[in-house]
Amino acid sequence: xxxxxxxxxxxxxxxxxxxxxxxxxxxxxxxxxxxxxxxxxxxxxxxxxxxxxxxxxxxxxxxxxxxxxxxxxxxxxxxxxxxxxxxxxxxxxxxxxxxxxxxxxxxxxxxxxxxxxxxxxxxxxxxxxxxxxxxxxxxxxxxxxxxxxxxxxxxxxxxxxxxxxxxxxxxxxxxxxxxxxxxxxxxxxxxxxxxxxxxxxxxxxxxxxxxxxxxxxxxxxxxxxxxxxxxxxxxxxxxxxxxxxxxxxxxxxxxxxxxxxxxxxxxxxxxxxxxxxxxxxxxxxxxxxxxxxxxxxxxxxxxxxxxxxxxxxxxxxxxxxxxxxxxxxxxxxxxxxxxxxxxxxxxxxxxxxxxxxxxxxxxxxxxxxxxxxxxxxxxxxxxxxxxxxxxxxxxxxxxxxxxxxxxxxxxxxxxxxxxxxxxxxxxxxxxxxxxxxxxxxxxxxxxxxxx
Amino acid sequence: xxxxxxxxxxxxxxxxxxxxxxxxxxxxxxxxxxxxxxxxxxxxxxxxxxxxxxxxxxxxxxxxxxxxxxxxxxxxxxxxxxxxxxxxxxxxxxxxxxxxxxxxxxxxxxxxxxxxxxxxxxxxxxxxxxxxxxxxxxxxxxxxxxxxxxxxxxxxxxxxxxxxxxxxxxxxxxxxxxxxxxxxxxxxxxxxxxxxxxxxxxxxxxxxxxxxxxxxxxxxxxxxxxxxxxxxxxxxxxxxxxxxxxxxxxxxxxxxxxxxxxxxxxxxxxxxxxxxxxxxxxxxxxxxxxxxxxxxxxxxxxxxxxxxxxxxxxxxxxxxxxxxxxxxxxxxxxxxxxxxxxxxxxxxxxxxxxxxxxxxxxxxxxxxxxxxxxxxxxxxxxxxxxxxxxxxxxxxxxxxxxxxxxxxxxxxxxxxxxxxxxxxxxxxxxxxxxxxxxxxxxxxxxxxxxxxxxxxxxxxxxxxxxxxxxxxxxxxxxxxxxxxxxxxxxxxxxxxxxxxxxxxxxxxxxxxxxxxx
Lengths: 451, 517
Prior knowledge:
The complex is a heterodimer of chains A (451) and B (517).
Chain A: H1 6-9, E1 21-22, H2 29-39, E2 43-48, H3 52-63, H4 85-90, H5 93-106, E3 111-116, H6 118-123, H7 127-133, E4 140-143, H8 152-166, E5 175-182, H9 192-205, E6 209-211, H10 219-224, E7 229-234, H11 241-251, E8 255-257, H12 264-279, H13 283-303, H14 305-311, E9 316-321, H15 323-335, E10 340-346, H16 352-363, E11 373-376, H17 380-386, E12 394-397, H18 405-409, E13 412-415, H19 432-447
Parallel strand pairs in A: 2-3, 3-4, 5-6, 5-7, 7-8, 9-10, 9-12, 10-11, 12-13
Chain B: H1 6-13, H2 28-32, E1 37-41, H3 42-51, H4 69-76, E2 83-87, E3 120-123, H5 128-133, H6 136-150, E4 154-158, H7 161-165, H8 170-177, E5 184-188, H9 199-213, E6 224-228, H10 235-247, E7 251-255, H11 261-265, E8 272-275, H12 278-292, H13 305-319, H14 322-354, E9 359-362, H15 366-379, E10 382-388, H16 396-406, E11 410-414, H17 418-428, E12 432-435, E13 448-451, H18 467-481, H19 486-494, H20 502-505
Parallel strand pairs in B: 2-3, 2-4, 4-5, 6-7, 6-8, 9-10, 9-12, 10-11, 12-13
Antiparallel strand pairs in B: 1-11
């Protein structure tokens, strides 16, 4: 702690560094939990919070996550206990009880997730006890979040932890060749819908059924089947790891981890090979899928070859994105398009213990002797400063950088990370074999003209 | 209770005095008996309000709807040029402000957007340990950091539920730090738990502006007109207001969004404070009159031809420009009235075809309620009902005026309660519903649906709503909206609704209103 009268004795120059951040690229744990709930069709989120929390997240989690509307359960449709001072004084449990009762009557859903905000966490409502009262008649669980519990990524873990703790029971028997996929955080990973679908389809190609939960109409059925999976797959160096760990502890499900959602043929091939090995899928099947897809994708890449080679071959690029997006995109650009890494800023505030691993994933096995500088930074002001005076021509970042990229750094911006207010993202993704084509199209289209 | 005089009634109905010795304003509930739940005739609401027996009620079912901080202040204060904003809050309270760099970038410089500007906000990112040990030092360090980084003229501090509940001493921290920083520190008490009424956030903001930022007038600027713009007014609305005032030699001091700190400091020097939204401007207007003798008027806002005429006349009165304004109105009518007449004829033609006037369900804040009903009347539209985020006694007299002008109507008072709004939209089944994202899926229907207003950064003349140009643009816009139902109809047929069917089969949008107050 700083001496609170520091400024009187030493003046502001001596006051230690500020922990305040300009425009960090995530919301709070409530926001992340709410985003995850809305991302799984059939889940009705119920906020036990102040009235502004849901609408704040409409702006600060959903619109920022690729200009997505709230849909039937998000935005102003989300039930909310709307706590005010009198509840701070007298408690909010009765209000919550009323709200759960009415929400289960009125809101069309299969499973209800009570998501805690700051107010109830501070006043000490026994939310769990209230939620339990309704469990006999409804599938309902408690997400033990608050705004100050952490950021959106924390909210993703808390959502699944609440579900597992309150509702999931060991499966009677394991379903072979079935996996759960974790680590894609809705809205924070702005291509979450396309990512989830691509992973599901890729795994289906090698005979594996994947519960990806997100944007699937049987998402709630998939949640219920979590304990029956043979494996869990985690597509992040850190998101979803706690969930997978808990599932291993509770149900004995082993898990495989990958540094990111795979982008382009090389990463996707590697992804499929590793999964196939774990599941004993024959090499023949996997290699035939990979060969077929590679042949098609690279033949298509050839169409862009002239524009690529004539206008912007081997350019330097910079990234400011969450760790998974940064790893997936950078490795594709470096190892398949021949782009040269300049500066990569990791913006999702990963825990200290995984930072070396993230850096390794950005600096090892690259098809260039040039190594990117890797910086972990959440502060938009410092991210901006760090980009000054560098050689990059392309900037893979967020809508915070997009409006100033050309003027300040002379670079063409592509929004690939949260916040993404300048693009609507529906089924677009850079994941998988075809992701290479989508990303390549986008990059070339930024500058191409008469050759 | 019957009051003998208007003054007596005013005294009982709302608190007129602004007390800047306090750290913040009272909330709208205390100040003007504000409520956010009512459904019935507007005349019934007026009667209840006048007799002093209007009461707020708890909802057994509520949806997320906005607080004093989010979304008004969180997306608004950070646009003030030359300032920095610090959210003293957990990180999620400010994520709605992530559009700050982009917000006005889409406005071409040729339309008057400054080429060079930079906006800044920070969050103190409160965590578990801060709520246990307190975060006063965190705030102080954030202020120093903001001063060092941005060298701003003002630093706004926006508080949160968390700082309110843990009892952060904001004023103490500010008093400690202010002597050491150049920027004027402006603490805004917008803790979400303070009030059910989002408008308390407006008052809290203006209280802080009046208390910390507005300077004593050095000179009177007799040609300066304060115009507080709402969130929902576009760049073209600004241009139209500037155009009209410019024609009679007046200048608009458009605040607070995208204004400079100096524009806020000089509020005291203006000739008059004019409304775009009466209850948004209310606290500021009263404060400026009380402290610096700047006169104000509350009604009407410049929406529709007649309202705009009257708005200009009021401004003319306070600036000694009555003759010029009459001349201006006459000139403008020559340009715009035929265009309005053409729109009106088209609506009349449609009405004749279908056998009744085209009905519209709209409104948003109290301001739009007051301004829009007469405007729709002018267009030849029927408004069988209206919705308003909240009601408080500050608009009582004006609401009476509207009822006497356009006749009685059903009024649903709720702050973005999507289920209630969907219900009333389904049951009243107007030809056209004017919606916004805060009504959930209410736009999914078989009949007409369009937006109620455009966005701040929208530079297209098509999106104008203010003044004469806006009356015509929005009239045409509404006509255009009647030309297609494909989007809302397709989505109505092909996507799920949020609510179970029984909701629409019973008749009461306030089904879940509780008896207790």
